[in-house]
């Protein structure tokens, strides 16, 4: 498995894997093709160097994405942070370290850009992701509606 910078032509893989990754978690996700495509474009525009893709090096199949936004101003911290807007892995590829490798890449990028904190919002009933983030050293730091804010100093 290798991790590379995302490109504009990764949009189709993003739409396909995003749809599969959020099955059962639709209350926290975009559900139409149109919304997912504009979300991809929005993420690319927010920070064009902060989106990374995990690729199976033997088949060149794309298996996951992370999007870190180092231009994000956190009103909680009153400064720019590395905002992990998105992280997902193809269901068949879970539990193999792909999510961890992608998250570490996003964090490394935020650090390179001089950020000292990463922030993200996870659905309150998305227990698997919450456990995953806790394992990765994130701590809950507030909530808004059905979202839990999590942060990690980097
Ligand atoms: C959350 C997600 C990205 C994790 O990806 P993954 O590739 O399965 O995670 P990894 O295999 O890298 O796991 C890394 C560590 O977290 C742990 N972990 C992963 N899923 C876990 C779970 N459901 N419960 C507890 N621990 C978990 C692993 O055991 C592993 O620990 P280790 O390093 O000690 O072995 C993936 O489940 C996913 O795509 N979920 C749907 C989309 C989503 O909810 N994204 C987050 C939105 S905020």
Automatic annotation (TrEMBL):
It comes from the Archaea. This is GCN5-related N-acetyltransferase. Pfam families: Acetyltransf_1. One of its GO terms (molecular function) is N-acetyltransferase activity. InterPro entries: AcTrfase_GNAT_prd, Acyl_CoA_acyltransferase, GNAT_dom, NAT_camello-type. Residues 1-154 form the N-acetyltransferase domain. Keywords: Acyltransferase, Transferase. Coiled coil: none annotated. Belongs to the acetyltransferase family.
